[in-house]
């Protein structure tokens, strides 16, 4: 099986890329913001038996370089993704976006719809900053008073330059899963707090795909949302699907936000089934 790890230079920085297998390409876009592609390992790697699976770390994440000015934005990540596609000499690509990665996948597809074969999204956050605010509000409602106080303290400490990613992760992880037992399988990923805060602010202030939503009208889109996700399948059905004419929503049972961690076999099956469906949508 083909396995290649490399660095691709984009605007003076090196982005880590891992390519495995051969066949139609699937690029996996990690969440966070500020996470890394390690989140997908080893759960999505078995797909390399049938497809060319491509994992990469976004700017300042995982093994990729930080920007010299520590600048992070949705616009830059769209450009990074396009430059990776070009560097790997890919034509049409399937994008798999998880959490914040779903925002990036949708944003890229709205700008470059003709580069897209299919979109697969999970732990979807929405199409605009309004949906993102609903996500944040619902998540905060799940926290008790003590947890809210701790989160506020950690966030302030992080804004002052402190390394708080591990503390925030430890505090918030239980709210992203259906079963706490799932956390025993989770790899510890070091987050880039600057990327997290700056891209989150960018989402709050600028994210709105609704004016360009027509660009997605002809694309085949699968949304796999955990029953117990922050934004429930019902929320997605009522607020997101109505804007995406070709999207199909599948509820992932016994899963919270992290469908890949809690139901990896079901997610792989959904991906394979969706990609094997004839282009007519049968």
Automatic annotation (TrEMBL):
Keywords linked to the UniProt accession: Hydrolase
A Gene Ontology biological process term: proteolysis
GO MF term (any one): aminopeptidase activity
InterPro entries: AB_hydrolase_1, AB_hydrolase_fold, AB_hydrolase_sf, Peptidase_S33
Domain AB hydrolase-1: 25-263
Signal peptide segment: none
GO cellular component: membrane
Membership in a protein family: Belongs to the peptidase S33 family.
Protein name in the entry: AB hydrolase-1 domain-containing protein
């Amino acid at each position: 099986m083909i396995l290649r790890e490399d660095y691709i230079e984009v605007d003076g920085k090196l982005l880590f890329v891992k390519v495995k297998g051969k066949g139609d390409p699937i690029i996996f876009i990690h969440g966070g913001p500020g996470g890394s592609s390690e989140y997908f390992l080893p759960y999505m790697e078995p797909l390399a038996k049938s497809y060319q699976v491509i994992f990469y770390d976004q700017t300042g994440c995982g093994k990729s370089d930080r920007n010299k000015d520590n600048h992070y934005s949705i616009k830059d990540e769209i450009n990074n993704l396009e430059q990776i596609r070009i560097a790997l000499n890919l034509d049409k690509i399937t994008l798999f976006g998880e959490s914040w990665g779903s925002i990036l996948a949708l944003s890229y597809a709205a700008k470059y719809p003709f580069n897209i074969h299919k979109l697969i999204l999970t732990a979807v956050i929405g199409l605009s900053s309004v949906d993102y605010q609903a996500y944040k509000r619902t998540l905060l409602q799940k926290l008790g008073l003590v947890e809210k106080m701790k989160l506020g303290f950690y966030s302030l400490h992080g804004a002052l330059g402190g390394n708080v990613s591990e503390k925030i992760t430890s505090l918030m992880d239980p709210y992203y899963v259906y079963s706490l037992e799932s956390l025993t399988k989770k790899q510890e990923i070091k987050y880039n707090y600057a990327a997290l805060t700056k891209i989150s602010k960018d989402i709050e202030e600028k994210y709105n795909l609704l004016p360009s939503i027509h660009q997605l009208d002809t694309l085949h889109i699968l949304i796999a949302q955990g029953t117990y996700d922050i934004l429930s399948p019902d929320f997605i059905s009522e607020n997101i699907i109505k804007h995406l004419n070709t999207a199909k929503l599948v509820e992932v049972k016994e899963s919270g936000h992290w469908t890949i961690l809690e139901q990896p076999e079901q997610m792989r099956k959904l991906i394979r089934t969706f990609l094997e469906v004839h282009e007519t949508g049968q």
